[in-house]
Amino acid sequence: MSGPGTAWYLALAAFLFGTGALGVLIRRNPLIVLLSLEIMLNGANLALIAFSRHVHNGTGQIFALAVMAVAASEVCVGLGLVVALHRRRLALDVDTLSELRG
Amino acid sequence: MSGGAWLCLLSPLAGALAITTGGTAISRRTAAWISTGTTFLAFAGAVWAFLSLRSQSGHHGELTTAWTWLQSGSFKVGLTLLVDPLSTLMMLIVSGVGALIVLYSVGYMDGDDEERRYFAYMSLFVFSMLTLVEGGNLLLLLVGWGLVGLSSYLLIGFWHERPSAVAAAKKAFVMNAFGDATMALAFFVLIAHTHSLSFATDFNVHLSSTAQTLVALGLLGGAAAKSAQIPLQTWLPDAMEGPTPVSALIHAATMVTAGVYLIARTHPIFEQARTVELIAAGTGALTLVVAGLVALVQTDIKRVIAYSTMSQIGYMFMGVGVGAYANGMFHLLTHAFFKALLFMAAGVVIHALAGEQDIRKMRGIGALMPLTKWCFLAGALALVGVPPFAGFFSKDSIVAATLGLGWYGYVFWACGVLGALLTGLYTFRLWFLVFPGEPSPFVREHHHTHHGQEGPWTMLVPIGLLALLATAAGWLQFAPIWHPLTDWLEPAARTLAVAEPTNTQEYVTSVVTVVAGLAGIAIAWAVYAGGRARRPSLPFVQRTLEHKFWFDELYDAVFYRPTVALSALLRTEVEDAIVLPTGPDLGRTTLEAGALVRRLQTGLLRTYVLFLAGGAAIVAFVFLLAK
Predict the structure, then answer these.
(1) Most exposed of B130, B368, B381, B565 (fewest Cβ within 10 Å)?
(2) Distance from B79 to chain A by nearest Cα, in Å?
(3) What is the ipTM of this complex?
(4) A102 CB near a chain B CB, below 8 Å?
(5) Is B603 close to A33, i.e. CB distance below 8 A?
(6) Are B276 and B186 in contact (CB under 8 A)?
């Protein structure tokens, strides 16, 4: 087997996941939050595929495909919400959307 | 063969979905015609299934499984349709009569604010009823059973701004839920013993006698609740709060006869527990007399017909209970025609009088509405069983089938004959009070026509067709001479030998019941047509009948009041006296704890994400430690 070892892939996956998580936590623009979510999902995908190669088993790749489908639908819903916010002239700031506070 | 069955089942569902998703994008008229069109399409599917089953040799029917729906160990349930003689007969009745009634609704509901909702519910009901009759295993049958209960609830309470309609819908739902529960319990017993809910397994297995009795009793509970038989009958008259076409379709022609279908379908179980089957017959005999008596004093035109429905279903229960399945199903068929006809003719009268339902005010309406009058008369004669109308053929054969059973057979027979007398009496009391004679001042004042006609064509055409069927459909079978229906149903539900009367018994019974029916008509004529005889004054009897034998009051006293009293007692004697004084103040402590936890709910997305990430981190940490 050529190329870098599995550990490198996992390190990159963890880095991507961490970056995404940080973005979700600290950014306020819903568009950027969605983007960060995508990065998290792709980090997870990378880990799945790395393991798939590591154990010589295609299951991980199938999982990654399923994750992509889920990601696509999630983005549809998320962007729909963003558009709806914009139409109602609400600020594009997730911190102002706190009506569910107990 | 299964193509027709699937078309029949799915086209009303497609109609309901189209109307629901279309919402306000489609006009009310379009919604009405979508519903009508899909129901007629379902009838076409039923005819297709019938024709292909007929061309099959022996016509034993077949099961089609679309996919395995539920699987748990060895217990498997598929989405299975059954096309056999019994289910095709029911498919034809449900979709055929259903299509005519939905067509009638197009005229009847015209101008209502919520027509779209009405037609979506009607399509949903037709789909549910077809699921019930086509379901190829007991679970699918139960699914249909629950769905017809739901759509009946929705349609009884259709005019939701009327408190009485909402109460009636609730009552019907609760009474039916009782039957659903006993049925579900019966299925649990079956699963425990046979690990299966398929017809083939459950009908050919020999259970212990306790299990047999339990299963049969559970099924009988479901059948009695759905078909409004004593002691679960009180919901049906109240269900008349729904629109009249709903009463015609659900509470006369199809749903309430589902109990009869259930007994005919599961007859191998009932035959193993023969006592329970005879209890079913006894229930029917009792109900047919009691309902006939109560119908004598009702003053609401729809309630008279509703009690008559209970009474006729009593006949059907008696028929399938003694083992004459084909006769019971035959009466179900003819009853669907003439009872839907009576309801729809009554609906035309109610429509023309702007919603009035009191028969004491309607005298002489026939002079203004000749077509409705003659159609109603055809339905009434079919109901009483005057030859050559349909009821004569089907009702007499049920009564005759009881004669082979010994002493209780004679009791059933006597009930049947007494029922025929009562049927003649209450039906023609209604007829003489409403149709003949000079129009009363009330009628003259309130009667209005629809563009100079008795009603729109969508209402008159179904009534005319059903009047033809009510007149002629009986010739389908005349037991002593030809019996195509019995032969047709034989592979699905063979009539028991004990329930096959001799020709002499048939003829004698026919003569006796027809004479009883005519005697009823004669009494009604003497008392109500021009006062040739005085109405007997029996205050106690009258009060008993007006209170429907006090069933509502009894249930109120036995179930409702004790529960309320017990709750009030617990409130004062336990809550105030014991719970509140002891220990910390429970209510306030709970509130304070709630306020504390509430702070976690910040409404900020990031807090939630942080909790999520923290939780995941803790899980990962614990996982690593454990490793």
Answers:
(1) B565
(2) 27
(3) 0.81
(4) yes
(5) no
(6) no
